[in-house]
Amino acid sequence: MRNRAVKIDISYRPSGNLARDASVIEQIESAGIDTVWIAEHSRNPFLPLTIAAKSTMSIRLATLGALAFPRSPMVTAQIAWDLARQSHGRFVLGLSAHSPADVLEQIDDNSFEAVARMREYIESLRAIWNTFQSDERLRYRGQYYRFRLMAPFFNPGPIDHPDIPIYLSADDADHCQLAGEICQGVHIPRLHSAAYLRETILPNVTRGLQYGGQSRDDICVCVSPLIVTGSTRAAADIAQRETKRRIAELAKAAGGRAVLRHHGWQEFLDIAPDHGDPSQASELWRCVSDEMLREFAIVADPPEVVDALKARYGGIADRILLPWSHANGELVSQLLSARKD
Is residue 57 part of a domain? Predict the structure, then answer.
């Protein structure tokens, strides 16, 4: 077991109001948080970081699961380079191998192809960055991506902090191995348990580390836990229902089904539709037992949440991402004030 202290970070879904989003990031920095992760959902995750790079001083600015494949590696490389320059090396590029169809339909028809393509995506990013920094001729040739030309007009030139960390969202064995082999960090699927992390996720990350000639200290394991809490009984009951709904939703994806199989909850999988009747899917949360809830989520009163997180993830995760929204900002602030560094 590792002795590295677990860090508490914040994940944030942008509102679309860039000034408001930058203000939230400034608040998060003022709370002493090390890293803020901007998730890609209905908004571009890079835009709020562009403003925050100038309005903040010390907090690391990161994307969480930015969609890789809809963007050319050249586009992503230029955006990341500019953010690394603006933030003086505080930018972290978090990528996801999902396509928009995967996100909407929660399917993965060809995991092997997705992994091979993601490997080339990351390799081509680093080839492009090397050309930006050194002005060496750009030469990358793969099955999915090929880059042979960098016109001086499009080369932004060197920066002081060219080694941009790459974190990969990984929800299967192959992506976990890829993250361990060539990335600086890995984001664990939202639906997980401590046992699944120890027995499935981390062994695959370790295999990747071995392939890449790295050690466990060379990669950062990040988790975004489900949390059931509330300052009142009524608020806690609402949080419990919403978390059960979230578990039911996540269980329909391939990664979620793998977690349930790991725990032997086949009876739930038998009634969980892959695509099926929407009315049936909407009621599936009622089949999520309290045992499942406690396996997949932290259930605790607000003052005990941070200690419960550290007890569950100590020795297996390096960073815990607490979600911040405009609806729960006050609650997250309470959790942060209770944390022990």
Answer: yes
